[in-house]
Structure formats: C-alpha cells, structure tokens
Amino acid sequence: QMHLVESGGGSVQPGGSLRLACQASGFAFHAHAMTWLRQVAGKGLEWVSDITASGDRPYYADSFKGRFATTRNNSEKILYLQMNNLQPEDTAVYFCAPTSYWRSWRDSGSGSWGPGTQVTVSS
Questions:
Q1: What gap in Å lies between CA 121 and CA 88, rounded to an integer?
Q2: How confident is the model over 96-117, as pLDDT tens digits?
Q3: Distance separating alpha carbons of residues 119 and 105, to the nearest angstrom
Q4: What is the pLDDT of residue 109?
C-alpha cells in the first residue's frame, strides 16, 4: 500500500530556507514521476513542482522558479524540496504525491495522502 510521509517543515523568517523531504514506501517509487503541492489554509491545492522518475528533469510553477529545487533519491525512496528565499506567501502545508495520481486523489477527495508538513514564514 502506498505510503507517503512529508517532513522538514517549520517556522522561518522571510529570506530563510528549508528542505522538505517525502519518504515513500509501498510502491515502485523509482518508476513514478513525483509532484510537490501545497495548500494554503482555506484554499485548494497548488502545484509546486514535478520531477521525472529518473530525477533528471524537474519542473516548477513560475512562482517558484529560481527559489525552489526538487530532487530525489530513488535508492532511498525520498523526494526533496529545497526552498530558498522563503516569503510569507509561501506559508502553507506541503504535500508530495505521484504525478499520475494526485489529480484523481484531489478530485475524488480520497487517496494515499501523507500528513503534509507545515511551513510558516513570518518575521
């Protein structure tokens, strides 16, 4: 059974950095493109980044280009999100999911979502 656990969130000041991690298990992690998403309180999911199954091609929403970097370690089954120059508008709960699954999970209101990790940026 697919299992995802996000970690690494916390409270930082504007301009600070965090590295999030997503530990995956229960599926062929190496064979799946992965996605980072976030959710601001009271709003819907926002796409942050995708990365190919091999990890050779990350993709980012315009808001995050140049500030965020997605990488993965397929041998350890871990997805990472390095976040730099964080701003208050980056405050959200961050989730990971397989790229091919997250939209159906969102639309159905179910799925193997992890607990997410809270990122709070404030002075």
A1: 5
A2: 999 999 999 999 989 999 999 9
A3: 22
A4: 87
Three-state secondary structure of the chain: CCEEEEECCEEECCCCCEEEEEEEECCCHHHCCEEEEEECCCCCEEEEEEECCCCCCEEECHHHCCCEEEEEECCCCEEEEEECCCCHHHCEEEEEEECCCHHHHHHHCCCCCCCCEEEEECC
For the record, the structure tokens of 30 come out as 């190496």
Residues 21/79, Cβ–Cβ less than 8 Å: yes
CB of 110 closer than 8 Å to CB of 46: no
Q: What is the pLDDT of residue 25?
A: 97
Structure tokens at 91: 């405050």
* pLDDT, tens digit (0-9, with 9 covering 90-100), for 56-69: 999 999 999 999 99
Closest alpha carbon to 39 in 108, 107, 106: 106
CA gap 69, 79 in Å, rounded? 11
